[in-house]
Amino acid sequence: AQSVTQLGSHVSVSEGALVLLRCNYSSSVPPYLFWYVQYPNQGLQLLLKYTTGATLVKGINGFEAEFKKSETSFHLTKPSAHMSDAAEYFCAVSRAGGTSYGKLTFGQGTILTVHP
Amino acid sequence: ETGVTQTPRHLVMGMTNKKSLKCEQHLGHNAMYWYKQSAKKPLELMFVYNFKEQTENNSVPSRFSPECPNSSHLFLHLHTLQPEDSALYLCASSQDSGRTYEQYFGPGTRLTVT
Fold first, then answer.
1. What is the pLDDT of residues A82-93, one digit of tens each?
2. A45 and A36 in contact (C-beta within 8 Å)?
3. Which among A57, A54, A42 has a CA at the least distance from the CA of A91?
4. Chain B contact for A10, CB < 8 A?
């Protein structure tokens, strides 16, 4: 079985500060990893994904994430927060093979608040 | 219309009503999904359709009945719901549920059961 743990249900940063949202996963086979963002009253939008290859993945809106197999982590970062980054962020894992091929398992989400 | 659309965006229904949620994707995908998003809970996958065939039912109560007439449309028929069914219902699509492609989400239907 696969699972995702997002450390911290709420993260608060000042505008211009570093954003770090933590995600750890559990998977018995090589994972595919995703970060989604959800703005109020909207659906989920894909920020970035890791499948294979380069472990540092760049996404939209200046976000990036690094796959660290030894730490089973896929933390999301952004060097400088903008007010428009305030939203809820979800980490998700999918198996790269087997019977759960393509099935996404989501973390519980982290609400990011950005202060002026 | 582009992407994944859902109607209605908001729905209030009584426990004895029957209503349907509609999802349409304009991405040429072959797989469609229903998720339930409740407050303070992880997203729950409800149903998966691949090439119009249901490939997954995640132990969803029978008061939720999905229908996928073609690869572009997905419905969720609701009847005799309970207050705990109040949630945001999200539809998503992907190229193929048999492989790991990213899923694209609609804006959701906010359902309130009174």
1. 999 999 999 999
2. yes
3. A57
4. no
